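Troubleshooting log. The previous structure file for this entry was overwritten by mistake, so regenerating from the original sequence record. Sequence copied from the archived sheet and checked twice against the printout by T.R.
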Amino acid sequence: MLGPVILAASRSDKMRRFISAAPGTKQVVDRFIAGETVDQVVPIIEDATGNGLEVTLDVVGEDITTPEQAAAARDAYLELVERLKDLGLGTRAEMSVKLSMFGQSLDGGHELALANVRPVVEAAAEIGTTVTLDAEDHTTLDSMFAIHEELRKDFPQTGCVIQAYLFRTEDDARRLADAGSRVRIVKGAYKEPASVAYQDKAEIDKAYVRILRTLMEGEGYPMIGSHDPRLIAIAQELGRKAGRKLDEYEFQMLYGIRSDEHLRLAAEGHRMRVYTAYGTDWYGYFMRRLAEKPANLLFFGRSILTKG
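Regenerated output below.
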């Protein structure tokens, strides 16, 4: 399977240099990355919300090695908050953050990440929106969930992400499916060992459905992160069986993938949020998008060949 190979390459500086220099890279990166600056992404936000969609914004960049870089990441999100304030979109435009960007992997990283993310969450609340904490590899999750719990004491709307391929996630879902919670469920996009995660796609899909049922039957607000038509249909059916109205859960899909489906779900009355990434440090995010779906890799390969 190519997925694990690509995920391993996402950690390679040599591959980063090769991919960045490839002639067709920019064409493919532009498919998944909305721009490099806030100014470039604002028209995309306006276009999406003008078409009945909602967005969550992710400033890409995970390879943080100094406290100064972590502070710069914090400041980039605070700049984004100021621009969202000008747009006045409320919760139609929220933010997603990876705590690795806020210094989680550094010495004293748990406290540093909490200290850096808190002002972003505070600023988001002041303009009527919120923040979702993205899940990363399994070694970071206890820290992420602890920070999530701490932030929810003052900002209960703060969301988090759970990953269906991890064995632990069914227990996490039961714990998180309480009133007021906002939980995004995804399949998972990191290379994880067989000791902690399902490796077979069918097993991951089964776990996803079990976890989604727990969230739908709970008292929180499920956010279904998937492009899989079968899982989308199952989510709709589970929502109906749980007696949920269409605004009591939402779908989330990535910018640049199945855009027609974004509009179709919104037209049916569903809340449909587009995960929109931007920034200059795009490599890790881009490689995970390639690993998730073979068609993305084929598209990349064709682009390199035609540009070479």
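The CA atoms of residues 165 and 200 lie 9 Å apart. Archived copy saved in two places this time.
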